[in-house]
Specification:
By secondary structure, this protein is an alpha/beta fold. It has 9 helices and 5 strands, in the order αβααββααβαβααα. Helix 2 packs across helix 8, helix 3 packs parallel to helix 8 and helix 5 runs parallel beside helix 6.
Length: about 280
Amino acid sequence: MGRRGVHTTIAGLLIAAAYAAASLAAPHLPRFADKSPSAIPVDVELVIAVDVSYSMDPDEQALQREGYIQALTSTEFLRALREGPNGKIAITYFEWAGANDQKIVMPWRLIDGPEAADAVAAEIARAPYRRASRTSISGALLFAKPLFDNSGYRGLRRVIDVSGDGANNAGVPVAPTRDAVVADGITINGLPVMLKRATAATLDIEALDVYYEDCVIGGPGAFVVPIRDRSKFVEATRTKLVLEIAGRQPEPRVIPASAEAPRISCTVGERMWQERWGGYDFR
């Protein structure tokens, strides 16, 4: 077996172990609703996964949250909601940082009109801000995937919306994790935050949008909406949510997320961490 095959096998075993650990811990996770034939039909089950690692400064965190709050109550979002076959979606919102650091800010909620959208936005707005160490996109995906199992809703589509400002540098590798999630029929979209100049000191990478395109997103209609300007934060977030609810995507410009030859290494974050701190583990 070649080196690539060995690494792939190890990554697969690590992901399997992570899922097993998550299953054992399930009784301690918040219970949203029972999965049953009576589950409420919706157009989309949407998991919003928001980066709160230390690389996100307080201003960026505030912009990130305000972007979702304003997007959920926008005229464009509500119009897309009304145009869906069911006219309703289910949504949950959690924050993530390191491999074992995920916190649900808002459990599953139904949005079927302006009043429900206002209530969801207000609930997100009330949550206190927090920050934590490391950046584990793979950990966020592993946490997000089983949330659909007990949502209490039956969506025509299941989508994980990941926003963040850095590459995966903790937990299991992100690309095989992405592939495992997509294999279950879930779409992963990305909102890479690119407001700061990339430097080695901050472990940022220059082409974060390309990294998200090649290593993070996947599934039917998957897309990336990068944010490069603070003044465009709300607009970009609104555009992304509207596209997700409407089941559309921007003008195609990305290579398939499962491409054999990504334009950027999917382990660039891990390598940068190792070069800076002299070691990397899969915790």
